[in-house]
Write a structure and sequence with these properties.
This protein is mostly helical. Helix content is about 70%, strand content about 0%. The radius of gyration is 18 Å and the shape is flat. The N and C termini lie far apart (about 40 Å).
Length: about 70
């Protein structure tokens, strides 16, 4: 297991550009989300939708593709 971790750190992670995404939620909403699975799911879904939209726009801009209004 430690050999695999060393390989990933030395050969994979160091080569691949990575970005960390953090979702910060106000305390009152955190408390509600801890008891309401549907609310938690909706918040996470919107966060992922927002990140994916940003990634699509960034990729299209870097590749010189036309940006559509849907993204």
């Amino acid at each position: 297991m430690s050999e695999t971790a060393a390989h990933l750190v030395d050969q994979v992670v160091s080569v691949v550009p990575m970005r960390q995404w953090v979702l910060t939620v106000p305390h009152p909403l955190r408390y509600l989300m801890s008891y309401d699975k549907e609310l938690c799911s909706r918040v996470v879904t919107e966060h992922v939708r927002s990140v994916f939209g940003w990634l699509r726009r960034k990729a299209k801009a870097e590749l010189g593709l036309r940006l559509s209004r849907a993204c």
